[in-house]
Amino acid sequence: MLSLLQTVLLCAGSLISRSVVCPAGSLTGTYLAEQPGVPISIPVTSNYTGIKKIPDDDHPFIAPGPDDQRGPCPGLNTLANHGYLPRNGIVTFAQIVEAVGEGFNMEYDLAAALAAFAMLGRGNAYLDLVSIGGESPLIPPLPGFIDGHHAPYGISKHGRFEGDMSITRQDAAIGDNVNFQEDLYDELLLYTGKYGDDSPVTGNSSVVTLKVMQEFKYSRFLEDQVKNPVLEYHPGRFATSYGEAAFVLEFFSNGNCLDLH
Ligand code: HEM
Ligand SMILES: *[C@@H]1O[C@H](CO)[C@@H](O)[C@H](O)[C@H]1NC(C)=O
Ligand SMILES: *[C@@H]1O[C@H](CO)[C@@H](O)[C@H](O)[C@H]1NC(C)=O
């Protein structure tokens, strides 16, 4: 499954380089005259191998304002809430790669592939801008309106990146696919209570494990087949949705059960 995930993401990743070397020569109209393209820069890989406090004092939590974009990705939302990403939620390719590296130690190639997927699927790669939430007036439509006469929708929009059977977001056809849903989280807690590991710090049956995620995702799959008549669970979505379960285990681990010394 990992190789499928890698394949899907690397394909998306390879497209970004094409968008860099492919100036919109074939596109015409006033748009291009008014709006020169922005080359997408690839940030230098960090060579830092020590331990860092995250978030540090320079990155305090500030709740998003009414015009700040937040969306279906708890990782990106958190990074914006702490200023590792621009707090307005309008971000560039390099900002995503650097922020997920610094904030969550996400490895460079995976970060670049995900950022590329978001940028190409729901952003404006011509201007190197994508919204981590919904449509924003800060991001103009694509050259030649190749994705419609509107601002790019942002990653909240169902269909390309955002998809069904999420952990804490409802399927778009059923309910709120963008914001945290307490009933789904309660379901995850139920499965944690049933299958989770014991911890001397957080209590018995409190640690979310691979087993918890497997059982929970399978139950979500059965549930969605009953509730969602237009359920989309194709191989691409399969890879990203299970990838996101792995993100919870890998990136949201709190270190309680590890010896960090
Ligand atoms: C590298 C750039 C990233 C991009 C472009 C990205 C984008 C997204 C998108 C579009 C979704 C919604 C998919 C859905 O419909 O379920 C999502 C979900 C998710 N992301 Fe990210 N993400 C990134 C990095 C991260 C990081 C670093 C973390 C963890 C720290 C993370 C954790 C998650 C989780 C746990 C979900 C599932 C939420 C849920 O189902 O309730 N992501 N991400
Ligand atoms: C990391 O990179 C910086 C800047 O390029 C350099 O000054 C430093 O010596 C490097 N550190 C290590 C451990 O390689
Ligand atoms: C957790 O489980 C262990 C082993 O089953 C038991 O001895 C202990 O009392 C439990 N702790 C709590 C807080 O329930």
TrEMBL record:
<comment type="similarity">
    <text>Belongs to the chloroperoxidase family.</text>
</comment>
<dbReference type="InterPro" id="IPR000028">
    <property type="entry name" value="Chloroperoxidase"/>
</dbReference>
<feature type="signal peptide">
    <location>
        <begin position="1"/>
        <end position="19"/>
    </location>
</feature>
<keyword id="KW-0732">Signal</keyword>
<keyword id="KW-0408">Iron</keyword>
<keyword id="KW-0349">Heme</keyword>
<protein>
    <submittedName>
        <fullName>Cloroperoxidase</fullName>
    </submittedName>
</protein>
<keyword id="KW-0575">Peroxidase</keyword>
<feature type="domain" description="Heme haloperoxidase family profile">
    <location>
        <begin position="57"/>
        <end position="261"/>
    </location>
</feature>
<keyword id="KW-0479">Metal-binding</keyword>
<dbReference type="GO" id="GO:0046872">
    <property type="term" value="F:metal ion binding"/>
</dbReference>
<dbReference type="Pfam" id="PF01328">
    <property type="entry name" value="Peroxidase_2"/>
</dbReference>
<dbReference type="GO" id="GO:0004601">
    <property type="term" value="F:peroxidase activity"/>
</dbReference>
<dbReference type="InterPro" id="IPR036851">
    <property type="entry name" value="Chloroperoxidase-like_sf"/>
</dbReference>
<keyword id="KW-0560">Oxidoreductase</keyword>
